[in-house]
Amino acid sequence: MGFVRTTPPRPVEVAAVFPELAPSARPAIRLHPRPGSPSIRDSSVGGPLLWPAQEPWPHCEDAHLHVDTGFRQSPTEVRLQRRLQSRWRPDDRPPTFTPEEEALKERNAAWLAERFDAGPPWPSECPVPMVPVAQLFLRDIPLLRPPGQADLLQILWCPYEHEPDNKPATALFWRAAADVVDVLAAPPEPYEADWPGYVPEPCVLAPEAITEYPNSLDLSPELAEMLADWSRWQAAGAGVDGSYAESPCDFYSIHLGNAPGWKVGGWPPWGRTDPNPRYCAVCQVPMVPLLTVASWEWDGGEGHSWAPEEDQAAALAGSHYAGQDPSQPTKVEVGSADNLQIYVCPTSPEHPHTDLVQ
């Protein structure tokens, strides 16, 4: 890990003001992905995977209807367009591709034409190669609880939304990195993506261990009532802005509960729905959050208090050029700027995982 990101101290020490919440504290690791050039030996988001050459690359076998979403581009085209956006400035001439990018664009166009000329079945109807989402080594993310001798987690998804939940289908693989001797040199790519937000930008990570508390929706009625008692905040000398006197729970939700962004462990970021527990399909025990795939690293407005100290200036800068918002380094956008949470069985990591959009 070549850089550091540091979550600013929370404005209130939750367990000190509300010791009743102390038993609810959970460890989490914020991944802090940032655009870079990760290798197959690095923990990453959207980077290349340490994938055995002898093991078939995962494909999504579900039906993929060719619905006209107004967007149809290959992952290569998506990333080339992002490169142009990263160089765009309103006071300059429109950026152009470099010779290397032009050559890549031409090779990609030739590949697409060859596939199209092949005729049916169309790529969206065939088994679709899955796209790398995250690769996490235990040495970097000690919060992982892999099975057996595994020390590497790899997560991929299909770049198409799937019914009935309108989200990408996910696949999860644990493996021992030392067992991968011959690495797959050229993994297959999907012909196209349903949405550019399902093509993660390659990012390096700066993992940071933090402590989280439940989302306000996860609290019991008694605890929620306690947080809503403004006199408790005043008696503790918490120094919370008086503008929250009518709704101190909002202060807790925005600044104190669970962190936004890509993270391992911690508490779920409810919002689209009320808490929706997941149960293992094999042993029926309640499942636990493994990975949060986030559309944004921090929210606008007051939510920028979660922006790392090293990014506070950029977070406060306000408007940004197209495609250059520092709070969306991975360029992932799930649903309507939501989060996709992957859950695993705490009894056995080898039991089937599940996922949920929030």
TrEMBL record:
InterPro entries: YwqG-like_sf
Protein known as: DUF1963 domain-containing protein
Upper lineage: Bacteria, Bacillati, Actinomycetota, Actinomycetes, Kitasatosporales
